[in-house]
Write a structure and sequence with these properties.
Layout: H1 3-7, H2 11-33, H3 41-66
Protein name: Large ribosomal subunit protein uL29
Family: Belongs to the universal ribosomal protein uL29 family.
Organism: Desulfobotulus mexicanus
Length: about 70
């Protein structure tokens, strides 16, 4: 999911996506630890998704505080 797509979502949807991505990250870490994860690059990709969502949320919060 790209940043432009994330910026079009409202805060509730962003927080839901963040929760889903963090849950997926936890599942991938667990599978990696038990040697069941075939594509370890997916760990890096999901971390980037979490960071993107958190960035958009933080930008919205700071923008709201300035107004």
């Amino acid at each position: 999911m790209k940043s432009n797509e994330l910026r079009s979502l409202d805060m509730n949807e962003l927080e839901a996506r963040l929760k889903d991505f963090r849950q997926e990250h936890m599942n991938l870490r667990f599978r990696h630890a038990t040697a069941q994860l075939d594509n370890t690059a997916s760990l890096k990709l999901i971390k980037k998704k979490v960071a993107r969502v958190m960035t958009v949320i933080q930008q919205r919060k700071s923008k709201g505080q300035d107004a």
